[in-house]
Structure formats: structure tokens, C-alpha cells
Give the backbone structure.
Amino acid sequence: MVPDVGVGDLLRMTGSFLLVLSLLLVTLFFVKRLSISGGSSSRQLAVNAVHHLGFRQKLIVIKINGDEILVAQSPHAVTLLGSWKISELKGAEQSNIEVDSLSQFQNVPVKKHSFRKFLGQLLDRQRN
């Protein structure tokens, strides 16, 4: 036995569905708008750069309130490596003062021979 569904019932169900759908869209629109502005928070937080070092290890540069911090993330900990003010870096660039904080890490000599010696000693220990 099939229940009788009239045109009026069909229009009422379709109207209810469209009303619920429109209320959902309006709610999502306002939620998205509020989340972009951050509400009443004046704190600015952004991830500027991420460099993956290996499996679950990375360096992250985070900008917060005009400062930048460098952190290292591993599976066991997050370590603060350094911090600086962005305004000081821009002032140093404008006055032609070189910033040596990054240049000291660019040309670090790689000690391949000492690692080879260490690896050789480790293998000799395992053989004995």
C-alpha cells in the first residue's frame, strides 16, 4: 500500500528542504567571515617558511606580532632556535648593514672525513 502524496505535500517538503539548505549556507558564510577576521583578537600569527630536514623533522619560521622565530620540530620536541624583530632586519637592510645571522650558516664546511672515521670506528666495534 503506497501512501498518497499530493502536489501540496511535495511543495511543502521541497520548501522545507530549501529553507534548511539556505539557513545552512547563511550560517557557513558568517562562520567563515568571523574566522577570517580572527574575531576580536589583535594577535597576528603566520607560518612564513617550512623546511623539511628528514622524516618528521623540520625547521619552521613563524611570524607573530612583528617578530619572527625559528623553531625546530622533531617527533619528541619543539625547540626554539632563535628570534628577531622584522623591523630591525628591514632597518639593517635599508642602512646597508649586513646581517650575519644567516650568512654564518650558509658556508658551513662539511666534515666528511671525520664522519667516515666515526663510521669506520663504529663498524670495527661491531665486528669485534
Residues 96-100 have pLDDT under 50 and may be disordered. The longest strand covers residues 45-54.
